Predict the structure.
Amino acid sequence: DAMVIQNPRYQVTQFGKPVTLSCSQTLNHNVMYWYQQKSSQAPKLLFHYYDKDFNNEADTPDNFQSRRPNTSFCFLDIRSPGLGDAAMYLCATSRGTGAGRTEAFFGQGTRLTVV
Amino acid sequence: GEDVEQSLFLSVREGDSSVINCTYTDSSSTYLYWYKQEPGAGLQLLTYIFSNMDMKQDQRLTVLLNKKDKHLSLRIADTQTGDSAIYFCAESIRDDKIIFGKGTRLHILP
């Protein structure tokens, strides 16, 4: 059974039109992450939540926002998508033990196309 | 700084061993990971190693860690066509962050 579920798998949006990607988890993990992965590049951490605490990466553009209304769900909002935002977006979760062992469980990803 | 480096491509004949190498820069890394990504899919955790270990074996997978040189390797014994994928090295650092390398694309030759 899928433990980290991302919807949709494929999303096409228009240049400048706000888009929301969703992620849900059945693991009851404390931490949820959003990564952006472009072709032949490393997954790049955008931000993560530890419970309700939001941790933004310094180089994440303001165009990217996130919401976590409860433990199970986390959303990635792109306010005005540009062509350069086309990528695979990966959601992941971890227990967040604080002891450094941070096995992350990933969803299948949402591939975003901007037209 | 936080950086994880890997070679981008590796070709191996079916049945041979594959060795994928990785270097990292953050000496405070506590856990290091290998993830596998098949086309169009998310990342699947293959194995991990704690920083006070130097080797871990799990069936066909052997992880070697040289903490002094900040070098991590993944050996896949008896490589099969189903092992064809991109393999990502990753390190966990402070605040539950995980930093990934660019991935090594493993191509299996018949």
